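FAQ: What does the model actually see?

It sees only this:
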Amino acid sequence: MNPLAILIVDDEAPARTRLRDVLGDIAARQPTHIVGMAANGFEALRLIEELKPELLLIDIQMPGMNGIELAQHLMRQPESPRIVFVTAYDQYAVRAFELNAIDYLLKPVRAERLALALAKARVSQPPPREVLDKMAEPRRHLAASERGRITLVPVAEILFLKAELKYVTAFTAERDFLLDESLVQLESEFADRFVRIHRNCLVARDKVTGFERDDEAEQWLVKIQGYPERLAVSRRQWPTVRTALLGSEVGE
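And it is asked to produce this:
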């Protein structure tokens, strides 16, 4: 067998060292080549672009970006490495088992179980994106592909999302980012954060600073923190927006 090129992703140095040592213990049965180690999801994305690993051993519980969110971003790329999750928490293992589509290892990782996971990974495909979405909490970042690289956009910094043709543009106070996402899917995933003001636009609830009435167009406009232009609220969406952001007592 050819050695599998592996990237280990775990925020705890002892855990990374243990995985490296156990991989060495089973090298005769499952030859591998550790191309790198990453301490968090952000570092992992950079190393993946640089090192092109075939397989990731990803800790699920990591600060900033957990392992499932990291995998979600990778699944949006044309070519994604195979993934085995590592976790100390049974609830993730149970969910992965129920979905029957993602392999996982429970800490502390045992040599026999790791060898089985590697053997399975050699013939498996990356987990489907919809499976990861079922396991995940709402993402803290959205991924924009720019010149073949992944740029992460913090959801907390997004002022509004606007659909144009088959893409969605995320607007922040500094710039905008083109996303390969569905506005409907984003509205469902982030229902607590964004509200629809138009068939092609979602605004962040906490970025709305007020409303203006455009009497000539007979419609309301939204004022957004850090954005100079006003966004139009469709007549159809105004009752929902009024209730969601201002309370139902506000007039028509």
